[in-house]
């Protein structure tokens, strides 16, 4: 094709992708080049105005030019043009520089993925997206609030148990498999929760929905926490943030007729935010830095950063006392404690 036809078809393709994305129940990720390196060393730009209109976020993958050259030479499936390491490096630099400029003009968030291993790049991608979406959420919340927020962890805080306590053999989810991920890694970092989300993403949708509905009907909010929620709802925005099952907590909030923003996600294909201790801390810190008044409630070290960043922190003692959490927050300027260990959770629906 000539340049005019190429441009027209490229715009048609990205518009078609946009149309399909609107009706898709999952994320759409498009891989491609900003420009192509021609035989004479010049560049054929493949970017169109439609690209600038369609993309929500753009990542530029950066690899060592030597590695790209090696991959090209080892490729037995395609005939590739031979370019020097220098040419490949210049091509990559051209793409990154031009893409960043295009994104700036269109107000598209832009990030580099520079990890050497693909698995690490994928984790970095999801982590960046999670924090970006939390930032966007904070902007939206600020438009419809009085800038006062109460952030609650869910499992162990709103009631003394854990959603995984309600698992049955028919759910296809093995609680021990989830716990082993944290045991093997030894912390609650994003990488751990990413592995958990990968595990959950493999569970058939109907099984997951059955578990979510059944568990949401079984959870009884702690009376003390429910009283706090109702009092705070009069003049504060309520946020529930979970590293577990946001679908459960949305149904629980509806059942109790609470106006709550539920933040969380555990499906890599559908969730906007995968939540770890870092995302919880990021949410509180972003709101505080924007001048908000933030109170945070949590029960474990997953909530430690969130509690530390809030102006007022409330440690909720659920299943047990977390000594390390008290030690971490011992110098907090406004710290209090609520003990809900006496609360019993009973099943209200089968």
Tell me what the structure shows.
This protein is of the alpha/beta class. The protein is 47% helix and 14% strand. The chain contains 13 helices and 10 strands. The longest helix is centred in the middle third of the chain and has 26 residues, at 118-143.
Concise summary:
Helix content is 47%, strand content 14%. It is α/β, with parallel strands linked by helices and 350 residues long.
Number of helices: 13
Low-pLDDT stretches are 343-350
Mean pLDDT: 91
The level of helicity is 40-55%
Large-scale geometry: elongated
Largest sheet: 6 strands, parallel
Structural Rg:
24 Å
How far apart are the termini? Answer: 63 Å
What's the β-strand tally? 10
Could you tell me the strand content as a percent range? Answer: 5-15%
As laid out across the biggest beta sheet, the strand order is: 7-6-5-8-9-10
Query: SS-based structural class?
Result: alpha/beta
């Amino acid at each position: 094709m000539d340049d005019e036809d190429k441009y027209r078809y490229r715009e048609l393709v990205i518009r078609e992708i946009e149309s399909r994305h609107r009706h898709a129940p999952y994320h759409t990720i498009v891989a491609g080049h900003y420009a192509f390196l021609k035989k004479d060393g010049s560049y054929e730009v493949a970017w169109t105005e439609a690209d600038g209109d369609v993309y929500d976020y753009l990542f530029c993958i950066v690899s060592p030019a030597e590695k790209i050259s090696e991959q090209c030479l080892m490729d037995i499936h395609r005939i590739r043009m031979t370019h020097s390491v220098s040419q490949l490096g210049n091509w990559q630099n051209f793409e990154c520089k031009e893409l960043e400029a295009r994104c700036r003009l269109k107000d598209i968030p832009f990030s580099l993925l520079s990890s050497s291993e693909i698995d690490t790049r994928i984790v970095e991608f999801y982590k960046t997206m999670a924090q970006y979406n939390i930032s966007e959420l904070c902007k939206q919340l600020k438009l419809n609030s009085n800038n006062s927020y109460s952030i609650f962890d869910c499992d162990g805080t709103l009631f003394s148990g854990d959603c995984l306590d309600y698992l049955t053999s028919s759910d296809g989810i093995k609680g021990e498999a989830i716990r082993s991920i944290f045991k093997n890694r030894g912390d609650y970092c994003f990488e751990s929760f990413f592995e958990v989300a990968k595990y959950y993403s493999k569970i058939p949708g109907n099984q997951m929905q059955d578990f979510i509905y059944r568990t949401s009907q079984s959870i009884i909010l702690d009376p003390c926490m429910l009283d706090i929620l109702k009092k705070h709802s009069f003049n504060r925005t309520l946020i529930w943030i979970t590293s577990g099952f946001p679908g459960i907590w949305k149904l629980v909030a509806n059942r109790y007729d609470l106006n709550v923003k539920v933040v969380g996600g555990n499906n890599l294909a559908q969730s906007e935010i995968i939540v770890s201790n870092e995302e919880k801390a990021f949410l509180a810190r972003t709101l505080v830095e924007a001048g908000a008044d933030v109170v945070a409630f949590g029960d474990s070290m997953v909530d430690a950063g969130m509690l530390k960043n809030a102006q007022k922190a409330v440690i909720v003692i659920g299943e047990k006392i977390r000594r390390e959490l008290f030690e971490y927050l011992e110098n907090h300027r406004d710290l209090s404690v609520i003990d809900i260990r006496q609360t019993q959770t009973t099943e209200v629906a089968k």
